[in-house]
Amino acid sequence: MESYTRSSSRPVAIWVYTGVIMLLVQVILGGITRLTGSGLSITEWKVVTGALPPINAAQWQDAFDKYRQTPQFRLINSDFTLPDFKFIFFWEWFHRFWARLVGVVFLVGFVWLLLKKKLQPAMIRPLIILFLLGALQGAIGWVMVASGLTGDAIYVAPTKLGLHFVFALGLVVYAFWFALDLSVAPGARLLNRQTSTLRRWTVVILILLFFQLLYGALMAGHKAAAVAPTWPTINGSWLPDGVFSQHPLFRDLVGNPFTVHFIHRTLAYTLFLCVLAWTAAALHVRRPVPDSFRRLRWLPLLVVSLQIVLGISSLLTSPGIIAHQWVAFDWLALFHQMTGLLFLLTMVGMLYLVVPDHKSHSVTV
Q: Are 155 and 162 in contact (CB under 8 A)?
C-alpha cells in the first residue's frame, strides 16, 4: 500500500480528527438521549425535512399527537404534557441533528480537500468506507427506534440498542485509526523484539473490551443496574439466583437482566487484571522506547481503574433513579460511558503504537 506524504496529510488528519471528536459527541448525545428516555419521541425518519424541529404550535401539536400513539406514551407517559414532550423531543432531535452535521462536515471537507488536491489516491478508499459506515449507522439507528414503536414495547429492543452502540464504536475506531495513520510519525511507534507479547495482550484486551461495551449497552437497554445495586456481591451473592436461568442460552445471555449484569461485572474484573498484565509487560520493555509510548503506557491502567470506580458508583446510586429527572445516577452513568470511550481509544492507540516485529515503521493503509 502507498505511504502518505506528511505535508499533504496534515490538513486531512485535522479534518478526520475533527470527525472523531464529533462522533464521540454523537455517542455521548446518544447516552443522554437514552438516560432522559427521549429516544422514541420522534416517530418518523425524515433524512432531509426532519433536520428542522417543529416551528409553530400546530407542528408541535402534530408531533405530540404522533408520539401519543406510541406504546411508550400509552403505557408509561400518559401524563405527559406538551412541555414534557418538548423536553424529550429536543434530545432526540439534537442527537439526529448532530448526526446530520457530522455528515455535512464530512462531505464539505471531502469536496474541499479534493479540490485543493490534498487527498492522495491511497486516502480515497478509507474515506469512502468511512462514509458508508456512517450511512449504515444511521440506518441501524432507525431500526433501533422502530423496535420501540410497535406492539407493547415501551423502550427500544436492548439487542438493537447494543447493535447501534457497537456500530457507532466501530465507526469511531475506524476514523481514529485512519487519523493515527495520517498523523503519527514512524519513529513514535514501538518496534523491537519484545513487542509481540505486548501486542498480544493488547489484542486480548480489545476483544474483551468489545464484549464489555456490548454488555454495557445491554445493561442500559435492560436497565440492569437497578436489578442488583450492591457491591462487591450481587444482591448478597457472588452468583445470584436468576443467572443463566432462561432457555435457550442465547436468549439468556442477551435478554436476562441478571445474566447481563453478572457478565458485565465479570468482564470488568477480567479486563482490570489483563490491563495489569499489559502494564507490567509495557514497563518491562527495554530500549529503544519512543517517548510517546513511555509517557502513555500508564494510561490504560488509570483509565480502566476510573471506569470501574464509575461503574460501581453508578450501581450504588441506581436506587435513586427518578423517571424524567436527572439525578446522580445519570451523571455517573454518563461519565461511565465517556470513560469507556476513552479506554477504547486508548487501547486502539496502543495497538497502533505497538508494531508487530515483522512489520516496518511505514505509515500505510
A: no
Task: Give the whole-number percent of the chain exceeding pLDDT 70.
Answer: 93
Residue 288 exposed, middle or buried by CB count within 10 Å (0-12, 13-18, 19+): exposed
Let me know: does 221 contact 163? Beta carbons within 8 Å. no
Residue-wise pLDDT tens digits, 130-165: 999 999 998 998 899 988 888 887 889 999 999 999
On the question of pLDDT at 188 being above 90, the answer is no
Partners of 190 in the β-ladder: 354
Question: Among residues of the chain, what percentage have pLDDT more than 90?
Answer: 66
Start-end of H helices in the chain: 6-35, 57-67, 71-76, 82-115, 121-146, 158-183, 195-222, 249-255, 257-283, 291-296, 299-317, 328-353
What are 99-115's pLDDT values in tens digits? 999 999 999 999 999 99
Cα four-point dihedral sign 30, 34, 37, 40? positive
Residue 360's pLDDT is what? 40
- C-alpha cell belonging to residue 251: 436468549
User: What is the distance between the alpha carbons of residues 295 and 298, in angstroms, rounded to a whole number?
Assistant: 7
Give, to the nearest 10 degrees, the angle between helix 6-35 and helix 328-353.
150
* Cell 447494543 found at: 162
Instruction: Write the Ramachandran bin of 344: left for phi over 0, alpha for psi from -120 to 50, otherwise beta.
Output: alpha
d(Cα 123, Cα 190) in Å, to the nearest integer?
Answer: 24
